[in-house]
């Protein structure tokens, strides 16, 4: 975009309809505050089912997508914005939908030469009755983010995860079951620049309670972040290159975040998933990595607005 911030009206989409609504509200408010500090005219839009009507009335120059989870991260809101011809931040319809579907994105990443974990999709009722693969393994919804509905079944476990088969399970009848990779939880932010995707650095995440779940991601003190991660140089470089390859393979634009597991004892490194709408809360990894490489939160927000686009 060529306009000055003071000439640009940005609608920050936040909240939404998913299980990650509360995180999105925090992310969106942080982003809106930073955009105002830069000088943009900002309207915060709690994106409900009337969002198309609201945006048609507001007529913003750009939509800053701070939504997380289904509807905001899976290509749905992106399709609305394409229909309204409003340039928007982050990835487009196809990349968003593809990255949100763990099974389909794993297939694409594997074909692109990115190391991904094994496992596959299973009926949730079967998973609740027996071990479909040998423990230890991880159960996760096929199309959720922020570690919502994720369970770790440890080695030697006799019982199963009854919650997955419960009547109130809200995350679909198929779940992803993957072998658990012990060791480090790593992440890499990728910026989709015109010259090609650029990985920033690698963060090593140590959860306070032993598993990087929803609370560890978002609660103050829920995890410790070490950046740059203390890794063998070859492993560090591989994380950067695989994150860039994943960003490209899925067709992402703007900012993405790739999450890895690394077992130093076995040398296994796998990319767990690519987040096309990474969190922007005070504890989030993307702003932290951007700051580490010399980009302030306000500079990152301005770049994302200037990078916004749509097909029309």
From TrEMBL:
This is D-alanine--D-alanine ligase. The keyword Nucleotide-binding applies. Its EC number is 6.3.2.4. Pathway: Cell wall biogenesis; peptidoglycan biosynthesis. One of its GO terms (molecular function) is D-alanine-D-alanine ligase activity. Belongs to the D-alanine--D-alanine ligase family. Residues 106-306 form the ATP-grasp domain. Cell wall formation. It is an enzyme of class 6 (ligase). It comes from Peiella sedimenti. Keywords: ATP-binding, Cell shape, Cell wall biogenesis/degradation, Cytoplasm, Ligase, Nucleotide-binding, Peptidoglycan synthesis. Its cofactor is Mg(2+); Mn(2+). HAMAP family: Dala_Dala_lig. Its main location: cytoplasm. InterPro entries: ATP-grasp (IPR011761), ATP_grasp_subdomain_1 (IPR013815), D-Ala_lig_Van_CS (IPR000291), D_ala_D_ala (IPR005905), Dala_Dala_lig_C (IPR011095), Dala_Dala_lig_N (IPR011127), PreATP-grasp_dom_sf (IPR016185). It comes from the Bacteria. The keyword Transmembrane does not apply. It catalyses: 2 D-alanine + ATP = D-alanyl-D-alanine + ADP + phosphate + H(+). Pfam families: Dala_Dala_lig_C, Dala_Dala_lig_N. It is found in: Cytoplasm.
């Amino acid at each position: 975009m060529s306009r000055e911030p003071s000439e640009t009206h940005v609608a920050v989409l936040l909240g939404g309809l998913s299980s990650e609504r509360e995180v999105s509200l925090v992310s969106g408010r942080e982003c809106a505050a930073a955009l105002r500090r830069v000088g943009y005219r900002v309207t915060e839009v709690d994106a409900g089912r009337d969002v198309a009507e609201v945006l048609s009335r507001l007529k913003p120059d750009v939509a800053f997508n701070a939504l997380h989870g289904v509807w905001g991260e899976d290509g749905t809101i992106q399709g609305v914005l394409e229909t309204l011809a409003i340039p928007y931040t982050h990835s487009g319809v196809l990349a968003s939908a593809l990255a949100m579907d763990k099974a389909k994105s794993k297939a694409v990443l594997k074909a692109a030469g990115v190391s991904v974990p094994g496992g596959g999709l299973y009926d949730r009722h079967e998973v609740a009755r027996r071990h479909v693969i040998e423990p230890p393994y991880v159960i996760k919804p096929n199309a959720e983010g922020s570690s919502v509905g994720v369970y770790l079944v440890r080695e030697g476990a006799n019982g199963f995860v009854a919650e997955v088969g419960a009547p109130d399970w809200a995350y679909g009848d198929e779940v992803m079951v993957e072998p658990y990779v012990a060791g480090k939880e790593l992440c890499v932010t990728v910026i989709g620049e015109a010259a090609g995707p650029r990985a920033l650095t690698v963060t090593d995440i140590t959860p306070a309670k032993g598993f990087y779940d929803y609370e560890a991601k978002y609660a103050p003190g829920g995890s410790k972040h070490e950046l740059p991660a203390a890794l063998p140089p070859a492993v560090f470089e591989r994380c950067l290159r695989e994150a860039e390859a994943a960003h490209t393979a899925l067709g992402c634009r703007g900012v993405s975040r790739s999450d890895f597991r690394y077992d130093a004892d076995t040398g296994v490194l796998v990319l767990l998933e690519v987040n096309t709408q990474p969190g922007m809360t005070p504890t989030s990894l993307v702003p932290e990595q951007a700051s580490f490489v010399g980009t302030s939160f306000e500079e990152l927000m301005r770049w994302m607005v200037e990078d916004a686009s749509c097909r029309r």
